[in-house]
Inverse folding.
């Protein structure tokens, strides 16, 4: 960072650069905008980030963020649907909630199997997934990992676990491009893929 920047400004720019897709120029523009034109917004941003860090924890069952002792995505009402949707990230969960009528339960992997990146079954919480498979309410496992090489590998691994537990498996299909990411799909594509899921085959 240029020595022309006062240290607090330089630190703010460095902090903003940590956001995905934000380079040095974009971070500089954001920092100057907040300081020049929206100091109230900057304070709101600081308070919101602080509140999220202090108040949000991960649900020990589904691994999604929660703000209370009870997770909104692990309710008895959702369990009655008998469906467990396995996804890679919290962003995928939000995309499904916003763009489909699915209201079953979830399991968030927080990644995908990738030996090159050192991501194995332990990092994905598959012991917790296996425990869920032993629950009497699970009647269908929906594999909603992304259609990438790693996503397909992960889906196959999960399908073997569900198959061993005797639980029917379906996989999202119809319209999701190979190599695509769920969180970037439009409402129509994702809704169609979800309603048109198919039985998972090896």
């Amino acid at each position: 960072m240029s020595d022309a920047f006062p240290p607090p400004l330089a630190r703010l720019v460095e902090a903003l650069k940590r956001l995905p897709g934000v380079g040095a120029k974009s971070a500089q523009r954001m920092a100057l905008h907040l300081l020049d034109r929206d100091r109230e917004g900057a304070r709101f941003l600081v308070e919101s980030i602080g509140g999220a860090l202090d108040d949000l924890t991960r649900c020990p069952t589904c691994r999604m963020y929660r703000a209370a002792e009870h997770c909104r995505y692990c309710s008895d009402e959702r369990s009655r649907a008998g469906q467990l949707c396995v996804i890679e990230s919290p962003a995928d969960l939000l995309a499904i909630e916003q763009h489909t009528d699915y209201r079953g339960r979830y399991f968030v992997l927080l990644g995908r199997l990738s030996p090159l990146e050192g991501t194995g079954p332990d990092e994905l919480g598959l012991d917790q997934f296996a425990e869920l498979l032993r629950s009497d309410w699970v009647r269908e496992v929906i594999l909603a990992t992304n259609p990438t090489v790693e996503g397909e590998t992960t889906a196959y691994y999960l399908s073997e676990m569900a198959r061993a537990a005797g639980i029917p498996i379906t996989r999202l299909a119809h319209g999701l491009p190979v190599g695509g990411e769920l969180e970037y799909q439009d409402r129509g594509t994702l809704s169609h893929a979800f309603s048109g899921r198919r039985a998972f085959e090896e």
